Amino acid sequence: MELFIIPTPIGNLKDITLRALETLRAADAVFCEDTRRTLQLLNHFEIKKKLFRYNEHDERSLAAAIGWLRSGKTAALITDGGSPCISDPGFRLVAECRRAGIRITPLPGPSAVITAAAGSGMPADSFIFLGFLPRSRSKIAKALASAFSLGKTVILYESPFRIKKFMSFVAEKFGTGTQAVIARELTKIHEEFICGTAGEIAEKLNAAEDIKGEIVILLRPSGNNADNSAENFAESTEDLGNPID
Length: 245
Description:
alpha/beta, Cobalt-precorrin-4 Transmethylase, domain 1, Methyltransferase, Cobalt-precorrin-4 Transmethylase, Domain 2, five-stranded mixed β-sheet
């Protein structure tokens, strides 16, 4: 009766760990976001395993996962890429397992946040991770202003469909001199780090064609930007658009 939390590659399949492969082979089943993507991963490493689709927002899915573990079986929890529970499904299952006395074993491994931070050139001894921000401009402004006030590097995820609007918004509301890094397609063939100020990066992105791939953004305010009050930006209620439009 044990749940293993297993990070999986965010792009390059060679990044999977030996321990992750060993654990996947030993588990009685795999709980995953998308059985098709997980099957591709397992087939690549010649692992045959019973798959269950785990839906964080479906009470029946949660109950089924807990029921499987309570029956004395083991399971590996994975997502489409990266570490479960970090802006990915898994938090509710882990919390319920803790309450039920089910053993939890988290494995270290691939993480877009850590990879981007390490390669950014920004201070990462301490940073603020915001995950995916809300769509409302006012809520985005409040979240960023609050994070900037701590004077640390701020890391977040953004959709390639909204990245142009987002960077223009940051330059407009927090100053064109805000330091920024865009980490795109990490560990993949077209991996790219775009470094500069918010104004410079916004200009570069707006001049480009469609932006593709998974994106991590790192921001760090310059000068007095960190002291800007969230109230100064709360008047705007327009959102940045639906990321799937």
